[in-house]
Amino acid sequence: MTIGLLAVILSASSAQAEIKGDAIRIGVLTDMNGVFATAMGAGSVEAARMAAEEFGGKINGKPIEILQADHQNKPDIATSLARKWFERDGLQAIADGGSSGSALAVQELVRANGKIFLISGAGANQLTDEACAPTSVQWTQDAYSTATAVVSGIMQNSKEPWFFITGDYAFGHSIETTARARIAELGGKVAGSVKAQLGTPDYSSFLLQAQASGAKILAINVAGDNATAIKQAEEFGLASQGIKIVPMSFQNVDIQAIGLKATKGDLIVTSFFEDVSPAARRFSDAFFARRNAMPSQIQAGVYSAVRHYLQAVKDADSDDGTIVMAKMKATPVSDAYTPNGRIREDQRMVHDLYLVQVKSPEESKRPWDFVKLVATIPPDHAFRPLDRSKCSLVGK
After folding, report:
1. What's the pTM value of the predicted model, to 2 decimals?
2. Phi, psi for residue 295 in degrees, rounded to 5
3. Order of strands, edge to edge, in the sheet holding 267-270?
4. Phi/psi of residue 93, each to 5°?
């Protein structure tokens, strides 16, 4: 190779690997005022800011800016906001994503323009399955891992029939489909199912159907409305009738809203809780000092994803989506959220999950002391195996 040719190659590489924007802009696109606002919303924005502050608010001389927008859980609004950010505001990455329907819509947009999408809120399986995109990563939860672990944990001790009250949206459908498959694999049965619209205020008719079905395990699969459904199930006295209430997707903010009396003993799958490690406790305490609440797993995931993205921008000295994603995938994820994460071929960030049990009021020693660890689920047991993936990126 001649010196002249080598100079041309190095020059081209240098031209690609630079931060071209006047700032590094990350937009937190989430539900700010709706049913998911407590688990996402302003807390996700704060978590992103905490990640940015770890870099001193700038990278290689370029300021880091955290923007925020409320998509109101409407895919058309989510897409419109994301397009405006990309085309008018010079945004390089979107974090959180909110509900699955909105995230799936935004993912189609980033597929076309190569921007980065750091999904923490949305859990629909499609995001890293048939709808996977090369610069989009599903960071925190997903329906496959959550439903599989919950069903496996419950059916260790019970083979009674199930009934599902399922949210009529992408994540709810994904959870029930995955749970039904696992129930069948373990020799169980589903006695019935009913769909509920997001924001349903009265679950009495659904609870009556569950009672009439003969099921002994009631799957509350209405993320966003868990507090309403579980409180009403308690008022119906289902537990005293021998029906076990199982929340399929549950977080610390849900326990805070409902209380330990109604949730004690419940098994929950989570990707984060404040006492899982000293680093998690330090982050959680710092978050609490700013928000007067502990971070949800989604908010902790936003922190982790934004932090990992910014580190990749710094290491690559680039804000080009393809270059930054390559660096993110080449770098292990190790922070307060997870000590051993990595981004797989299907754009799923895999990490430990935790099967936890809700404490009784007597066991809880301080505010937000809600759960105790039952088992750590390693990544190869938690997430959908790659040989079952429909993602077009697998094997390439």
Report:
1. 0.90
2. -70, 140
3. 267-270, 353-358, 371-377
4. -150, 150
CA distance 171 to 155: 22
- In the block, tokens 């710092």 appear at 286
Which is it for strands 162-167 and 136-138: parallel, antiparallel or unpaired? unpaired
Contact 333, 344 (CB under 8 A): no
- CA–CA separation, 251 vs 346, rounded Å? 26
275 CB burial (10 A radius; 0-12, 13-18, 19+): middle
- Give the residue from 139, 133, 138, 140 showing the smallest Cα distance to 322: 133
Please tell me whether residue 224 adopts helix, strand or coil conformation.
Answer: coil
**pLDDT digit string (tens) for 150-176?**
999 889 888 999 999 999 998 999 999
Taking Cα atoms as reference points, which of 158, 156, 116, 169 lies closest to residue 138?
116
Q: Give 84-104 as a DSSP string.
A: HHHHHS---EEEE--SHHHHH
Q: Is the pLDDT at 88 greater than 80, yes or no?
A: yes
